[in-house]
């Protein structure tokens, strides 16, 4: 079993019934003895960045629900590197945060950069030992994830989840099309 670390992804088990994490992919930004933090990267909302921040000079970039914790906070991932100062590289071309004012300034000047930045309301978090317990219960599978998988246009909220489940192969491949409620099978 692959161990979670910053820059890896958690892929929810097809039968996980928690409505916050049903068929989700969580990109991990922190993982240590004290807990884990990340963002659900495949739950788009109807909220647009320019409306959220009440700033029509910004593009109408889609905002994602990053998780159920602190929904009044805004976070971002990008693949622009140190173009956004103070960003933290988490491997494979994915950067976390940085100077939000500079990121927004770049978006105003170059609206096409919205394809390279994803914004998240809230985050996903696990306290000490909580994620380990969920991994032991097989609620999640730890996987690698690439920048192009996060930043590619997604057909729907399940596209990325299915792609990563299929990429796991073996016993997981047939589960990507399993019904949410196994009794409906």
Order of helices and strands: EEEEHEEEEHEHEHHH
Compute the number of structural domains: 1
The quaternary organization reads as single chain
> Structural class, judged by helices and strands?
alpha+beta
Arithmetic mean of pLDDT: 92
Strand content: 25-35%
Number of contiguous helices? 6
Query: Rg to the nearest angstrom?
Result: 16 Å
Kindly state the number of beta strands: 10
Largest sheet: 10 strands, mixed
CATH T-level fold name: VC0467-like
Low-confidence segments, ≥5 residues, pLDDT <50? none
Helical coverage, percent range:
10-25%
Instruction: Give the N-to-C terminal Cα separation.
Output: 29 Å
User: What is the architecture at the second tier of CATH?
Assistant: 3-Layer(aba) Sandwich
Please, what is the CATH homologous superfamily? Answer: VC0467-like
Structure description:
It is globular and about 45 Å long. The relative contact order is 0.22. The protein has 185 residues and is of the alpha+beta class. A hairpin with a 2-residue loop joins strand 2 (25-32) and strand 3 (35-40). The longest helix has 10 residues, at 100-109. It has helices at residues 49-52, 100-109, 130-136, 147-151, 159-168, 170-173, and strands at residues 9-12, 25-32, 35-40, 44-48, 62-65, 69-78, 88-89, 95-96, 117-127, 140-143. It has one domain: VC0467-like (3-Layer(aba) Sandwich), CATH 3.40.1740. The mean pLDDT is 92. Strands 1, 2, 3, 4, 5, 6, 7, 8, 9 and 10 form a ten-stranded mixed β-sheet that branches.
């Amino acid at each position: 079993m692959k161990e979670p670390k910053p820059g890896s992804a958690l892929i929810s088990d097809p039968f996980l019934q928690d409505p916050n994490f049903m068929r989700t992919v969580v990109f991990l930004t922190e993982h240590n003895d004290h807990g884990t933090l990340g963002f659900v990267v495949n739950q788009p909302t109807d909220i647009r960045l320019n409306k959220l921040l009440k700033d029509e000079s910004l593009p109408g970039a889609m905002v994602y629900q990053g998780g159920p914790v602190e929904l009044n906070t805004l976070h971002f991932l990008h693949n622009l590197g140190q173009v956004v100062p103070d960003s933290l590289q988490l491997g494979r071309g994915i950067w976390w945060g940085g100077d939000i004012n500079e990121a927004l300034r770049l978006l105003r000047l170059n609206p096409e950069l919205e394809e390279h930045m994803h914004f998240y309301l809230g985050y996903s978090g696990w306290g000490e030992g909580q994620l380990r317990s969920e991994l032991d219960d097989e609620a999640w599978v730890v996987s690698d994830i690439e920048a192009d998988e996060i930043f590619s246009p997604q057909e729907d909220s399940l596209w990325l989840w299915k792609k990563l489940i299929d990429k796991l192969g073996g016993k997981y491949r047939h589960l990507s099309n399993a019904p949410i409620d196994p009794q409906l099978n």
